[in-house]
Write a structure and sequence with these properties.
Blueprint lengths: L8 H11 L4 E8 L2 E8 L14 H6 L7 H5 L3 E10 L2 H5 L8 H17 L16 E14 L14 E15 L4 E8 L6 H9 L4 E4 L2 E4 H9 L1 E3 L4 E6 L8 H9 L16 H7 L12 E5 L2 E5 L7 H37 L6 H16 L12 H13 L2 H49 L5 H31 L1
Parallel strand pairs: 10-12
Antiparallel strand pairs: 1-2, 3-6, 3-9, 3-10, 4-5, 4-7, 5-6, 7-8, 11-12
Helix pairs in contact: 5-10, 10-11, 10-12, 10-13, 11-13, 13-14
Length: 484
């Protein structure tokens, strides 16, 4: 006997939130000409370290005093993306028996693969040029994500840190650039049961936690220790709210764009009064290209609001994968920029300990690795609207400013390279000139009576000393002119 319930879309989101989507596969059929959604439970065997929290109701109802009334009723889809550097590829190739549900994650990977093939360039199977053939996506594992209240400064007594809700099982999906060490780690959470602004706040301050052996550990430490993945750039989020823009107040959207906790009673820092955000929210559709959604983006967040996405999770993944793909490409670019900037800074800090050959070798390595990311610069999407969307997000994420900053450091590297080459040339010139004078002097000495050889030798040595002194003086003048 099959019982079919007719519920509102908000009721469906609530059901999904409490069900725990990572443990189920969503299916849709027609019953009496009506689309009907049902969920097949995935049987999984978990070790104690990876045992998830199945009671998702507790994720919503625990510590309600820490969650605003508004956020208790908002159930969004969210993707968190972290730019990373891969340091130990052998750890990524290992098989981890975490028994993660592949259906949910593979749908996201399949959607991103489709966007990769069809959103830019030639979708032909023979087209292996550019960025398309470089990206490899894989499901790493699932982790039990936990968020806490922010640690604050207290001069009188220790500031208490409280757990917000229960741990939530989420998958980790890695997109890797196979020609460089860059990658993007994606954490998808559909019908998110956690308070969204506090989740994004934890992301902003790099304090997302995972539970291992009933103990919290920083997510960034976990992926570094387990997979050799290290954060390289600022984490970003992509949020979908299933409501019209007019039904969501500016204060709440501003908090999400700023990546901060929303306070319903205007405690904390009060309302956001940033001129750029106020102007942006004054546009009914934001940066959207069509009127089916309102889209706003700021430094680390992209938010879209629409009632058109009130469909099945499968359809939501298909629609959301468009913007998610755009963000992934931009994150690859940011990762490459941040990586070369870190490498240049480390190199300049240790410059005094390097010899000339090491300096030139390191400079060549840094610039070569940076050049490998060029396929992700200014990717030409097939549709003009897609190109505009990508550019709007790039501007919001301030990628051009990051590139300008690293360009200045790159110029410093090239100047160092030029100076080192000049010094090497000058040193070689000294020795060649000195050897030439000595050889010429002794050649002349052979033609003269041997009794005068000592006088000639002394005269030659005097000429060599004068020559060296003049060259040193000339080099000092050159260096002074460069400094000026």
């Amino acid at each position: 006997m099959l019982d079919v319930l007719r519920i509102s879309y908000q009721g469906l989101l609530t059901y999904q939130r409490e069900l725990g989507l990572l443990d189920y596969d969503e299916c849709q059929i027609l019953i009496e000409d009506m689309p009907t959604i049902f969920y097949l439970q995935i049987e999984k065997q978990h070790t104690d370290n990876q045992r998830p929290c199945y009671n998702k109701i507790r994720s919503v109802k625990s510590n309600l005093h820490l969650i605003s009334v508004k956020e208790q009723s908002i159930i969004p889809d969210i993707y968190i993306q972290i730019p990373i550097i891969r340091t130990e590829t052998s750890k990524l190739d290992s098989e981890y028996n975490y028994d993660t549900n592949p259906f949910y994650s593979n749908k996201i990977i399949k959607a991103l693969e489709f966007r990769t093939n069809y959103e830019a360039g030639d979708p032909s199977a023979h087209n292996t040029t550019g960025f398309k053939s470089r990206i490899k996506r894989q499901l790493l594992t699932s982790v039990n994500l936990q968020i806490f209240t922010e640690t604050t400064l207290s001069l009188n007594q220790p500031s208490p840190v409280e757990k917000i809700g229960e741990a939530l099982e989420v998958p980790l999906i890695l997109s890797s650039d196979m020609l460089s060490d860059c990658g993007v780690l994606t954490i998808p959470i559909h019908s998110c049961p956690l308070p969204i602004s506090q989740l994004i706040d934890s992301m902003s301050r790099n304090q997302l936690m995972v539970v291992l052996d009933n103990k919290p550990i920083a997510l960034l430490d976990h992926i570094a220790n387990t997979f050799g993945l290290y954060k390289c750039g600022a984490p970003k989020c992509f949020i979908t709210l299933f409501d019209e823009r007019k039904n969501i107040d500016d204060t709440y959207i501003s908090s999400l764009l700023f990546g901060e906790t929303y306070y319903e009673d205007n405690t904390g820092l009060g309302k956001v009064v940033d001129n750029k955000i106020i102007h942006m929210l004054g546009l009914e559709y934001g940066i959207a290209q069509y009127n089916y959604a309102s889209v706003y983006c700021y430094k680390n967040a992209v938010i879209q609001m629409t009632s058109r996405f009130r469909t099945s999770i499968n359809e939501r993944i298909i629609q959301e994968s468009i913007t998610l793909f755009y963000m992934e490409l931009i994150m690859f670019e940011e990762c490459a920029i941040s990586n070369v900037e870190n490498n240049i800074s480390n190199f300049l800090n240790k410059l005094d300990y390097y010899n000339n050959s090491t300096v030139l070798s390191n400079i060549n390595s840094i610039l070569s690795n940076y050049a490998k990311s060029s396929d992700f610069w200014d990717i030409q999407m097939n549709y003009p609207s897609s190109r505009k969307s990508v550019e709007e997000i790039r501007n919001a994420f301030q990628i051009s400013k990051l590139r300008e900053d690293v360009s200045k450091k790159k110029d410093t590297l090239l100047n160092i390279c030029t100076i080192r080459d000049t010094i090497l040339d000058e040193t070689e010139g000294y020795f060649i000139s000195i050897i030439g004078i000595i050889v010429a002097a002794f050649s002349c000495a052979d033609l003269i009576n041997s009794s005068h050889s000592r006088q000639i030798l002394g005269f030659v040595l005097l000429l060599v000393c004068i020559f060296i002194a003049l060259r040193l003086r000339m080099n000092r003048e050159i260096r002074r002119s460069r400094i000026k």
